[in-house]
Amino acid sequence: MAGAPPPNGRVLRLDLHVHTTASPDSTLTLERAFQEARSRGLAGFALTDHNRVPGPEELGRLRALGPGLLLVPGSEISTRQGHLLAFGLRRAIPRGLSFEESVARVRAEGGLPVAPHPFRWAHGCGLRGLATPGLAGWEAVNGRTFEKANRRAAELPRSPGGTRTGGSDAHSPGEVGRAYTEVEVESVDVDGVLRALSEGRCRGGGEGQSWGGRIRISLANAQKRLGRGLRPV
Questions:
Q1: Residue 206 forms beta bridges with which residues?
Q2: Which of 71, 76, 85, 153 has an alpha carbon within 20 to 30 A of 19's alpha carbon?
Q3: Residue of 8, 18, 9 lying closest to 165 (CA atoms)
Q4: SS3 76
């Protein structure tokens, strides 16, 4: 587990990186994601589909599918230098911008930008991206990333951002909750979660992938990409 446990307050365990069938590379329905989260004792999860953000009315309908669980609005944005998670975003950010501009746009829209899987060979922002002004922090544990890359992320000093998250990066039911974030909240609601994340009152936990697991994921991703005509997510 990455980081020290929060010292005070109520701690919620959330999976802060989940993709549903609204993403072109996921087979996980939102209904099933809620079921899996509940069965694993999670308090909820972040909906981080690729390059999209549900509007207020849609978000209300989605939340009704999982009563008693928190659904944190988010997005995983495809930048030119890797992917970027954005929590609490109200409007989608265009894909294909630079990492720095994407971080700035997320901040301008009132969101919290966090770098996912920073040392994954594909879609990681690397050390250069982690030095981007305005970045709140990064994933210390990603459920689809090599353990070695996760350890490197977890062992980085807490500068520049104080936020260290964990998320499964789930694209199928069995992955939900493989990695997670423990968040020390003052109020058990989405605003309380976002406030705690912005103040760094959180830690990432769970596990990543072995070589065999990562190879299986890469082969599955290649098949999905062929199925959508080689279009990237």
A1: 179
A2: 153
A3: 18
A4: strand
Cα–Cα distance measured from residue 32 to residue 143, given in angstroms and rounded to the nearest whole number:
18
Q: Give the pLDDT of residue 154.
A: 94
Domain boundaries of the chain, sorted by first residue: 10-227
Please answer whether residues 147 and 186 qualify as being in contact, where contact means their C-beta atoms are separated by less than 8 angstroms.
no
The fold adopted by the segment(s) 10-227 is TIM Barrel (3.20.20)
What confidence score (pLDDT) does residue 122 get? 86
How far, in Å, CA of 77 to CA of 230, rounded?
Answer: 18
User: How many CB atoms lie under 10 A from the CB of residue 107?
Assistant: 16
Full DSSP string of 88-143: S-SSPPPTTS-HHHHHHHHHHTT-EEEESSTT-TTT--HHHHHT-TT--EEEEEET
- Token output for 62: 């989605």
In this prediction, the residues of the chain whose per-residue pLDDT falls under 50 are 1, 5
Which one, of 82, 86, 87, lies nearest residue 72 by Cα? Answer: 87
- Token readout for 53 is 């953000």
